[in-house]
Amino acid sequence: MNELPAVSSLRTVGEHVELDLGQDLASSPRYNDDIAPTKSTQRTWSRWNVASLWVGMAICVPTYTLGGVLTAYFGLSVGEALWTILIANIIVLIPLTLNAFPGTKYGLPCPVVLRASFGIIGSNVPSLIRALVACGWFGVQTLFGGIAIHLLLSAIFEGWAALGGIGEVLGFFIFWIANITVVIRGSESIKHLETLAAPMLLAVALGLLFWAMPKVDVGTLLEMPPSRPPGQPLAGYFMAALTAMVGFWATLSLNIPDFSRYARSQRSQIIGQMIGLPLTMLLFSGLGVVLTAASTELVGVSISDPINLIGKIDSPFWVVLAMLMIILATISTNTAANIVSPTNVFQNVAPKYINEHKGVLLTGLIGILLMSWELLKKLGLLDTDVSLESLYSNWLVGYSSLLGPIAGIMIVDYFLIKKQSYDVLALYQDNAGYPAWNKAGLIAFLVPVALTIIAITTGELSWFYTYGWFTGSMLGGLIYLFMARKQTRSTV
User: Fold this and answer.
1) Confidence of residue 261 (pLDDT cuts 50, 70, 90)
2) Of 171, 184, 472, 480, which one has the fewest beta carbons inside 10 Å?
3) Rounded Cα distance, 349 and 402, in Å
């Protein structure tokens, strides 16, 4: 084993900046190998790998269900909901592609990127918020995966169906173990999983549509009146639905560097995201819109998620096949969207004590705790009336109000303040160029959050909360731009 040089250095490899590790960073409490910049040899993801990543993440149960929520609870017609999905996902491409830039150029994960705008220690604040949201989604997705395993085993073994809620809980932990195992195998495992899952998941979506089309009249569905009160203008309902749909990917708009750090080039990540996200979301979430609206005619009851809808198909073979696809879809989404990010965050908090494997396990355990209420409910040990509708309407809008300001701050910092130039070595050391706590970033984050809390608790400024991602990202970005430029002038 070669001894490390005393001092770390950087070199340019094509459009990438690569770190040559020295003793100074290796011994730093802010560094470990798992959050280190990726090597050029690790940056193997083509545009198609990036596109497949998005296909794998977008084709999932919550995406489908969100489509149904747009019509049932945001008051949109089927046609209005489809346009909202398309517009929202074109909008969300902006922060996704922009925040991916530092990851691709420097090979940095999201928590390290946040050190530039929030400070070496201050970065833990937005990072932990993003991590907890991801852990919550990990629990939700694992629950869906557990239900799919339960229905799969029920279709194969007659006695399993009799387990009811206990079977769903057992399915939850079977899925949990499988998902954690995939992530521990590393980034290449994720890439191969997404590449494998993408065409199979598209087949599931098209299969559902093929099954439903002979039984429903699409023209009639498109002509169905919206569920909002008659005479109410579209604008307010549209903006609330748009915020929820944009907020759905508010999480990934922050931690996209966790994946773009493996991209071959900026062109690969930009084109891959443009190919993979909008059309896939329109297909699968739009499928949720149409089939939720048609579910009463299809199976006699309104069903907003594909798992229980597929469970109504009177064919064990097709149920088993579809559930296998759904399980694969959920694993791919959970892996990319909900495990990688918090794992990196936990390592960022304590790099010398938490490695990748420990971070993955910690993410999984928090996910179990956050879903414990639902697991206890299924076991008959807890009575709760928390609804799917409440989860989506309040969950999406609520956390987008927290994550929007962070996205705005990250974009402003990298492109307008740092001019696309980071001191990478300083990002892994104390007192080397970046402050421990960057007041500009923290204030720019806390002001929109404070206004959100005021809106929720008093009813005043309700529009600020309703349009949380847009208002938060713009206000946070503007405050940061003003304060960071003021800080820069004062140090000159």
Assistant:
1) very high
2) 184
3) 20
Q: How many residues does the chain have?
A: 492
Contact status, residue 252 vs residue 40, Cβ threshold 8 Å: no
Instruction: Read off the pTM.
Output: 0.86
Q: What is the mean pLDDT of residues 342-368?
A: 87
Question: To which H or E segment does residue 166 belong?
Answer: helix 165-184
DSSP structure string for 17-69: EEEE--HHHHT-TT--GGGSPPPGGG--B-HHHHHHHHHHHHSSHHHHHHHHH
At 156-205, the pLDDT tens digits run 988 898 998 899 999 999 999 999 988 887 655 565 666 666 567 667 77
Q: Which backbone phi and psi does 78 adopt, to 5 degrees? A: -60, -45
Closest CA to 177 of 328, 361, 375, 366: 361
Buried b (16+ CB within 10 A) or exposed e, 238-265: bbbbbbbbbbbbbbbbbbbbbbbbbbbb
CB 56 within 8 A of CB 332: yes
Q: Torsion over CA of 59, 470, 411 and 44, rounded to 10 degrees?
A: 0
CA gap 333, 399 in Å, rounded: 19
pLDDT tier at 92, thresholds 50, 70, 90: very high
Report the percentage of the chain scoring pLDDT > 90: 43
Tell me how far apart the alpha carbons of residues 227 and 208 are, in angstroms, rounded to a whole number. 25
Under DSSP, the state recorded for 313 is S
Q: What is the DSSP letter of 338?
A: I
* Cβ pair 222, 78 in contact under 8 A: yes
Contact 25, 31 (CB under 8 A): yes
What H or E segment, with its residue span, contains residue 222?
helix 218-223
Buried b (16+ CB within 10 A) or exposed e, 462-491: eebbbbbbbbbbebbbebbbebbeeeeeee
Q: Say how far apart CA 189 and CA 183 lie, in whole Å.
A: 7
The kind and range of the H/E element at 10 are strand 9-13
Alpha-carbon distance of 387 to 392, in angstroms, equals 9
- Nearest-angstrom CA–CA distance, 428 and 25: 7
CATH of 41-400, one of 2.160.20.10, 3.40.50.720, 1.20.120.550, 1.10.4160.10: 1.10.4160.10
